Amino acid sequence: MVKKQKILFICTYNSVRSQMAEAIINSRYSEKFHADSAGLIPGGVDPYAISALNMRGIDTSGLTSKSIGRISDRKYSMIIFLCENARMRAHYLPVSDRTECRLVSLPPAEGGDPVLAYSRLADILINMFETDPLFN
Q1: How does DSSP assign 99-124, residue by residue?
Q2: What range(s) does the Phosphotyrosine protein phosphatase I domain occupy (predicted)?
Q3: I want to staple 79 with a disulfide (CB 3.0 to 4.6 A). Which of 2, 28, 90, 96 is the partner?
């Protein structure tokens, strides 16, 4: 049996990108990885992020916004920053074998429709995981 790699996704607020990444990895790549997410200043899980994931059949149960301090005693195979602000401001991190950056921005809400923007973000993250050698 292959040991799962533990991944930590970090963003500033742990409300959108890192939450979505955690759910996608745990839903679609659970045979190889276990993902957690955290932020510098937890801001609660964004309901549009939940909606975009649920529309794709991705399980969002159990997602909660967490601070890095709350999980600082854990060890990870990889820590992946999804935003530059968090990468620049994270002064302490849990122990990890590797740190990576995969900077992902929230697409603009065309016509003021946030659902569309979050849906595009979900697709961007899914595509990133499908094509990035780190996950394959």
Answers
A1: EEE---PPPP-GGG-HHHHHHHHHHH
A2: 5-131
A3: 96
What would the mean pLDDT of 11-21 be, rounded to a whole number?
Answer: 96
Nearby residues of 72 by Cβ (< 8 Å), 6 or more positions away:
92, 93, 94
Is 99's pLDDT higher than 90?
A: yes
In degrees rounded to 5, what are phi and psi of residue 88? Answer: -75, -30
What pLDDT does 106 receive?
A: 83
Q: In whole angstroms, give the CA distance from residue 110 to residue 126.
A: 20
Domain boundaries in the chain? 5-135
Question: Is the pLDDT score of 42 beyond 90?
Answer: yes
Which pLDDT belongs to residue 1? 63
Residues 4, 29 contacting (CB under 8 angstroms): no
Q: Count other Cβ atoms within 10 Å, centred on residue 130.
A: 12
Q: What is the mean pLDDT of residues 105-127?
A: 88
Q: CA-CA-CA-CA torsion for 7, 10, 14, 18, nearest 10 degrees?
A: -60
- Overall average pLDDT of the 108-128 stretch: 89
